[in-house]
Amino acid sequence: MSAELIHRTAVEVAAAIAGGEVSAREVTAAHLQRIADVEAEIKAFLYVDGDRALAAADAIDARRAAGETLGPLAGVPLALKDIFTLKGAPTTCGSRILEGWKPPYDSTVTRRLKQAGIVILGKTNMDEFAMGSSTENSGYQTTHNPWDLTKIPGGSGGGSAAALAAFEAPLAIGTDTGGSIRQPASVTGTVGVKPTYGGTSRYGVVAMASSLDQPGPCGRTVLDTALLHQVIAGWDPLDSTSINAPVPDVVGAARSGDVRGMRIGVVTELGGEGYQPGVEQRFHEALEVLRGAGAEIVEVSCPNFTYALAAYYLIMPSEVSSNLARFDAMRYGLRVGDDGTRSAEEVMRLTGGPASGPR
Amino acid sequence: MALSPSDVARLGELARIDLTEEELHHLAPQLDVILEAVASVTLVAGDDIPPTSHALPLTNVFRDDVVRPSLPVADVLAAAPATEMDRFRVPRILEDNA
Question: What residue spans define the domains of chain B?
Answer without folding.
Answer: 5-44
